[in-house]
Design a protein that fits this description.
CATH class of one domain: Alpha Beta
CATH superfamily of one domain: P-loop containing nucleotide triphosphate hydrolases
Number of helices: 26
Structural class: mainly alpha
Amino acid sequence: MARQAMSQRDWNAVARLSDAILQQDPGSDDGLFIKGVLARLGRNLEASQDFFRRALAANGQRHDAAIELANIYSRLRRNGDAAALIRKYSPLIQNSPKYLDLAGTISVEIGMPETAWPLYKRANILQPDAPLLMANLANCATYMGETGLAAELYEKLIAGNPKHRQNHYHYSRVRKANSEDHIVQMKALLEDKTVPDNRNTPILYSIAKEYEDLKKWDQAFEFYAKANSSVSAQLNYNPGPDIELLDHIQKKCDQTWLSNGDAKSNQPPVPIFIAGLPRTGTTLVERIIGSHSQVSSLGETMFVQQSARQISPDQPNLFTPEGFDGFADNCEDLPNKYLAMADYRLAATPHFIEKLPLNFMFLGPIAKAWPSAKIVVLKRGAMDTCFSMYKQVFTWAYKFSYDLEHIGRYYVAYDNLMKHWKALLGDRVVDVDYETLARNPGQEIPKLIESLGLGFEEACLNFHLNERASTSASSVQVRSKINTGSIGRWRHFEDQLQPLQMILQNAGIAI
């Protein structure tokens, strides 16, 4: 009866029945499992965790309790515990589309799309044509470089539900438009005035991207501007505090600060931090270095920020002067905390990559706390960098990137910070110029690999053959050989970008 009530979403009945089950048998795995579901629905993660753990202790074969518990662990940032449960119980969920899909989603969330891939595929075999399962498979296919399959799945999803805006958005990302057919279909959705403006934001970005594919520059910019205006209206963002933070970091992290304190750990594995603004080539360089036999990659993680919050728990907002200072003054334990968090994903290689672009803010504390760490910083032409960010929606991250004035002001502050890091850290920072790399990869890639103390390997030149998953905004582009096609692309929009150009030039930044 409790199961039937759950299927009918009659939660009051579910609560009564689970109470009755546990009153009769306090150790009932069924009763405990149902209580766990109710607690999860009520967003009581701690109670839900307790019920699912007890259900699993009562019956170690309950794959549903195990995957539900993994889901709670993921939400509580206990990623290693979530990964361990998925690895252990994946063989037991092979006939459950629901829990195959949930295990896949958890795996993606904790940075393991390769683990998610066979789970999603199996779920779709068991329950073909289920929209949610198809969408998750298509998303993971993009990460895995299976863009042809992703496009086919999105076409099928759009045919089944032409009004699903996110599917249109993802479809536009995995293939290059060769006609205006999809643009016409998406524009028709904009005619529905009953839909709130914010729901159309993905469509606006998609139309802009496809117009750019077709080299219709003015139409492309028109829709990029509309898309960014839509995001800006939702954010109501003021870049002032973020810019002030970058200025504060320079004052805080001076030579005296760097000289004080002793690092606690210099043990392997050795991290390679790849940083820079988004869209500067960080993913490209990650693929190049990560193709070396002595290097694995964690991709983009939040482990630095999460470690910082553990180090300074009384200042949970790291992106304030007080929060940054709390981390910077006590950063010596960063390696130990980071490696403990990353342990479930570390491969048996002497080096690993961490490439979250935002880590550019923390290069000083990273260098101070982790003497063995390698630091690679990407630099790309200022206008191409700024406009590439403007064209990309970052799921509410990088809030400065949705307004040209904000981008320009932030870039100036960022440029000053990077000059400061170079002056402070010297040769600890390996600079990579995107344009130079793209124009002469045969010379620049070996130089980059050797600057990291690694022997050059041919696989680094053939990085596009690397089958490892990529979850970054450049996950599609990195499957191709390096090229110069994106260099100077902003010039197609030179008239519209004049306000941005003026801000940068007035600050003395080369265009």
